[in-house]
Design brief:
With 643 residues, the protein is of the alpha+beta class. It contains 24 helices and 15 strands. Strands 1, 2, 3, 4, 5, 6, 9, 12 and 13 form a nine-stranded mixed beta sheet that branches. Bound molecules: adenosine-5'-diphosphate and magnesium ion (MG) (4 copies).
């Protein structure tokens, strides 16, 4: 999220009354911006990551590791630099949903130079140091995807109490005071989501059934102040959670890219969509929820269940480029009037359908000051609806009156424990987009298969045990030139919809990433791209190390974080084979994670990765500049199309 605008939140009743107003003006705002900006072109590649951190406080005597609700104070401290030098600060800090979370991004986006890959990790390390300096004794920043004992007993510092009968979420597990208090937005979201649904949020995650886990697994919630709703709602053999904090309180790793124009951004959106489940599985880092080992390894379903009362169809995704129209094989629920409105406004059918689908949502929070807007200049109503859609990909139109171009955001990845790992995943995705644009690679498969992959990606150890649908021939048909032609004519003659089912097959993660006799593999494709550009030794070493991690995770040689956490729990002396992750196990696990973070690079003891970027940011940048001075800068640039 960007800077939070201050204001007075409306009640759900009021917000709901204004739903049509927000949708109508949101659409108009999109149409106005689209008209102004559709022919904006020649933007260059900019990109940047977002990492969410949790603040953890250890008590070494009591052997506890609690979530420190310190974000407000810590953020005041972290944002000093930005306030003093708005144009030039190394990191940017924003609040997140929970009072134990902060979100950090690089102070400026990275550009099209390959040498920038030397800075990604050092900037992430710097951010962790900055948080550390703002924290008290025994407090540390951890980039955990899910805190294992969220919602169990006294999990916060200071201690907080649930208020099942009053308040925003009425959770029997997650106190309202754990929600970030510095801005009303987050509490309002929680209250309105619950009121819109007409009952509490309902999250059900299958429990990992161990030898001594009760069967069926049914919990007694009466001591927690349950009025009967939890007992009625919780499914046997599931970990039940009852508020959006369980999803929004997870951390993630996101990457945003700027494309050279709107068509390229639509193409990137479409090419990255099939990679979402694949990268979710490869980054899996969250096997424990509410103190129990679960049967899933990744958080995405917890987020969708926690913020979302849509049905599966309503949660539809769609490709954005007309050329991939026939791969949109799931009926999109959309607002037909708004869709017509968009098309009347000059927006093509595929894009109109995508936006009209997002706009089936109600605004979930609304501030009285923001109700009446100038649709020519503002985009708040559009952004309001856009941001209530929790999707793995986000299409970001340029903000009004800015130098920023058309962007897409890649949102599925689980945040990794170390800066090395996070930098590796981010770098891999950026390089893959460059290979896509350079070679006109095509990963598109029917959207229903992407959905199926998404379900598979959550499964325990999906990386090693499951198969994913993937396109057989990634060199087919759709070069950027074809896509441009198709966009211009509105017709897609090159795609023969009849044989789509022959275009994809099931592959293992190892085949997808490392290749097989029949498939080149994503990593070899990235390497081929790297061979086609000029690259200095430092940057090349850095990238090779990152690719090594990705490759080993895909082959199973290096376990995912989820697998490491599972192994740690099940081998802990305090573990009783009953799926319970006790306070002591939680403490020992987080202690180990803290020791290893930014030291040994990954949690597993099997492989050692040595990070080559020990440079600080100025050193890394000046090295890169020296290298570039001797080279043809064009060959070190990663801008898209070879046109
Ligand atoms: P949000 O939370 O809405 O996704 P943030 O501002 O938190 O957005 O993060 C966006 C990311 O995009 C940051 O890493 C930032 O550096 C990067 N970024 C900023 N400007 C651009 C741009 N013009 N193109 C691409 N990425 C950008
Ligand atoms: Mg953000
Ligand atoms: Mg955000
Ligand atoms: Mg965030
Ligand atoms: Mg983001």
């Amino acid at each position: 999220m960007g800077l939070l605008s201050e204001g007075s939140p409306l009640s759900w009743e009021e917000t709901k009354k204004h739903g049509d107003h927000v949708r109508k003006h949101g659409i108009q705002q999109f149409i106005n911006q689209y008209k102004k900006l559709k022919s904006r072109s020649r933007d260059i590649l900019y990109w940047g990551d977002e990492v969410e951190y949790m603040l953890v406080k250890f008590d070494d005597e009591k052997k506890t590791a609690k979530l420190s609700l310190n974000a407000g104070e810590v953020l005041d401290n972290l944002q000093q630099c930005e306030k003093l030098c708005p144009q030039d600060h190394p990191s940017t800090w924003r609040p997140e949903y929970a009072g134990y979370m902060v979100e950090g991004t690089p102070g400026k986006p990275y550009g099209g130079l390959l040498a920038h890959f030397n800075v990604v990790e050092s900037n992430m390390r710097l951010r962790r140091k900055e948080i550390q300096q703002a924290l008290g004794p025994n407090e540390v920043p951890l980039s955990l995807t899910s805190y294992p004992r969220l919602g169990v007993g006294n999990f916060s510092d200071p201690e907080t109490k649930t208020t099942p009968e009053t308040g925003a979420s009425k959770s029997i597990f997650f106190p309202d005071e754990v929600i970030f208090q510095g801005h009303p937005r987050f509490r309002t979201l929680s209250r309105n989501i619950r009121q819109r649904k007409g009952g509490k949020v309902e999250i059900q995650i299958p429990i990992f059934k161990d030898k001594k886990t009760p069967s069926p697994f049914i919990e007694d919630f009466s001591a927690l102040g349950d009025d009967g709703e939890a007992a009625r709602t919780a499914k046997p053999d599931h970990i039940y959670m009852d508020c959006m904090g369980f999803g929004m309180g997870c951390s993630c790793l996101q990457v945003t890219f700027q494309a050279c124009n709107i068509d390229e951004s639509r193409l990137l959106y479409d090419q990255l969509a099939p990679l979402c489940p694949i990268m979710l599985a490869l980054s899996a880092a969250s096997p424990v929820y509410r103190g129990y080992l679960s049967d899933i390894d990744a958080r995405w379903t917890v987020i969708s269940q926690s913020v979302d009362d849509r049905t599966d169809e309503e949660r539809g995704k769609s490709y954005l480029s007309p050329i991939y129209k026939c791969y949109n094989d799931i009926e999109l629920v959309l607002d037909q009037d708004l869709c017509d409105e968009l098309q009347k406004g000059g927006i093509d059918e595929t894009m109109a359908r995508h936006i009209a689908h997002l706009f089936i949502r109600d605004p979930i929070s609304l501030f009285s000051e923001k109700l009446n807007q100038n649709d020519e200049e503002d985009t708040d109503h559009f952004e309001n609806i856009q941001s209530t859609n929790w999707q793995t990909m986000r299409f970001k139109p340029p903000p009004p009156n800015s130098s920023i171009g058309w962007r897409v955001e890649f949102r599925p990845m689980e945040v990794q424990l170390s800066s090395f790992e996070n930098a590796a995943y981010v770098t891999f995705i950026v390089l893959l987009t460059r290979a896509v644009l350079s070679y006109g690679l095509n990963f598109v498969i029917p959207i229903s298969k992407v959905d199926e992959n998404m379900r598979t990606a959550h499964k325990r150890d999906a990386v090693n045990k499951d198969m994913f649908y993937f396109r057989k021939d990634v060199f087919t048909d759709c070069s950027p030139a074809d896509v441009a032609k198709c966009m211009a004519s509105g017709k897609c003659e090159r795609i023969k919809c009849s044989n789509i089912q022959d275009e994809y097959t099931q592959m293992t993660m190892n085949e997808i990433f490392n290749g097989s006799d029949d498939f080149p593999g994503l990593i070899p494709l990235v390497k081929q791209y790297l061979n086609s550009v000029d690259i200095d030794i430092d940057t090349s070493c850095t990238i090779q190390n990152y690719l090594k991690l990705i490759s080993k995770r895909a082959s199973g040689a290096e376990p995912t974080i989820a697998k490491c956490i599972r192994n740690f729990v099940t081998n802990h002396p305090d573990y009783k084979q009953d799926s319970v992750v006790s306070e002591e196990i939680n403490y020992d696990l987080l202690k180990l994670i803290h020791e290893k973070t930014d030291n040994c690079e990954t949690l597993s003891t099997d492989t050692k990765f040595s990070s080559k970027t020990k440079d600080d940011i100025p050193t890394a940048l000046s090295k890169a500049e020296k290298f570039l001075a001797q080279k043809n800068p064009q060959k070190n640039m990663m801008n898209g199309h070879k046109s």
